[in-house]
Amino acid sequence: MAYEVTATRRRPKNFDELAGQEFVAATLKNSLKTGHIAHAYLFSGPRGCGKTSAARILAKALRCEKGPAENPCGVCPQCLEIARGAGMDVIEIDGASNTGVNHIRQIKEEVMFPPGSGKYKIYIIDEVHMLSDSAFNALLKTIEEPPPYIIFIFATTELQKVPATIKSRCQQFNFRLIPTETIKALLAQACSETGITAEDEALFWIARESTGSARDAYTLFDQVVSFSKGHITSALIAEKLGLAGLDILNEFSEACAANDLAGVFSCIDKALESGIAAEQFVEDLADYYHSMLLIKAGVTKESILGYPVSRFPAKILEKLDTIRLAHAGELLYNLHRDIRYSVSPRYELETAASKLCWLDRWVSPPELTEAIRGVQTLLENPENRQTGENENARRSLAAANHEAAANSAESSTDVHEDANQDESRLSINRLYNQWQADKKKGSNDESEITVPNTAVPQSAAVGSVDPVKNPAVEAVLRIFDGTIVNGEKNEHQSF
Ligand SMILES: [Zn+2]
Known about the structure:
The chain is α/β, with parallel strands linked by helices. Helices cover 59% and strands 6% of the residues. The chain contains 25 helices and seven strands. It has a five-stranded parallel sheet with strand order 2-3-4-1-5, with helices on one face. Strands 6-7 form a two-stranded parallel sheet. The radius of gyration is 32 Å and the shape is elongated. Bound molecules: zinc ion (ZN). The site of zinc ion has 8 residues, from α4.
């Protein structure tokens, strides 16, 4: 028997096999059972999620000798004809290549002739949104008052492009993306049917990569099967398709978390040497940091993360919070957009990687704004100035920051961040004291951690373009310092 691609071989034959579209299947079955047959149906939804299959099943159910039946028998001549795609009375038209009004006129003439066999003559028009305006107008009259034996089934991936006049004359069904778990189950069935074994993680990867389309999943599955020699593993997929597997991504992020720039560069070198394209590596890294952000936010579902939570390094999850993980994602997504225009993708990747190395020291603009507000509060309360550490200062600082937090969307979204943010709110206080102490010591040692020296590299490390940068803190501290030295509030320096 000739080789048949999995997508064709496993095309659903009845409504029960229509994976991920339970609502559509149940509604259609019910209307067949009760005999409420519409003149025109409109199936909309993303590609590869079962619209054409559902149209064929519906055609079979309507034309079956035992029909209209909610479950077509699959053995009568009409059923077999549709399964072979050879029926004279089930006409499939691709809207994309038959967009003109002439094609529709032809249909208008044809519908005058009853079906050669069976009860219904069915037109399935795929990608119906591609029809021209005049074609739609010509079609309109036909679907308004068709002969009783004519049924139209339209399918479209772009519902918004279908004129409202057509939509209002059709029974509409919205198809959804098939859940990853469901696709994985379909792939597992395909494996067992063909005697192939597969790692769970590998099937998950294929299912996730297909983004809700069963057809995409089967196509990718066939490709993977072709080099897998009967056993599908994620390591082999990563190797053959030039992807960064989880191991190398973990290695990369661990080096980053340890501020080990040399380790990060050697990791990139290893990845590119093994045949992973820089663009692909950036894409995989972006996904990876995004998954960690989700984990940090409490997501544990494997189908969303792509891997079990336990496969991600706990060390890094401990070290980075959602603000910094979101920033990493942003950095990588921006890079992914830009990298295709880059003269040297590798250099861009390495530059981004060096920024990721300093991720734990990065301060977000809202955090910085809050810190500056804290200083402002201190400035406005002269009695607090002499002793930055005293309890009053701390309290007024905390109060000001509490207000700032209430106004800040970031702070309210993540309760786990509270502890960290309290830290950062008070840290300006500590920074100031440290800065003062360093100044008193008169230390000129560059390696000494002083505010001006750490503040600049932090923002430089992330290449922030936001107006509020760490040098602002330094400026604030200078003003703060000035007012203490003068012992009086200088109006020109107030905020
Ligand atoms: Zn039948």
